[in-house]
Amino acid sequence: MAHEIPYHVYPTDCDVFGHVNHATMITILEHARWALLETVISLRDVTRRDLWADGVWSVVRHVDIGYHWQSLPGDDLAIRSGLVEIGRTSYRIRQAVSHRDTGRLHAEATITFVCLDTDGRPVPVPERWRSVFPTWD
Hints:
The protein is mainly β and 137 residues long. It has a single domain (3-131), classed as Roll (Thiol Ester Dehydrase, Chain A), CATH 3.10.129.10. It contains one helix and five strands. The protein has one helix spanning 22-38, and strands at residues 3-8, 57-67, 76-86, 90-99, 105-116. A hairpin with a 5-residue loop joins strand 4 and strand 5 (105-116).
C-alpha cells in the first residue's frame, strides 16, 4: 500500500506568480520520499552505508512529472508514494499530489533510481530492497 504524507502550502513555497513552481514541487516530492524511507530506516542511519546492502546506494536517474492543477498558498495536499517497478539495476517510485479536501490531482511523477556501488558503477538492486518500499496500489 502506498505511503502518504500531508503537506500544507505556505506563501514561501510559492513563486512570484503565487503558485508552487516546478523546483518547489520536486522538493516536496523528495520530502515525501524521505518520509517513505523513514518508515523503514532512521534518517540518522541513512548515511551509514553498511545499512544499505554492501555499500549499494541509489541516485535519481530520471524524473517524469506532469502537472494537472496549480497548488496555492493554504492548500492542504496529500502526497502518496509507492514502488511501481524494480528492474535489474533500477527501480521506479510513483508519486501523486492531490488536494486533501477535494481529491483533485495536482501533480503526478515517476522517479527512476539506479543502484550504484561505491565506485559509482550500476549494480543489481539488492534483494532485500525489494521488500523495503511500500508498493503503489
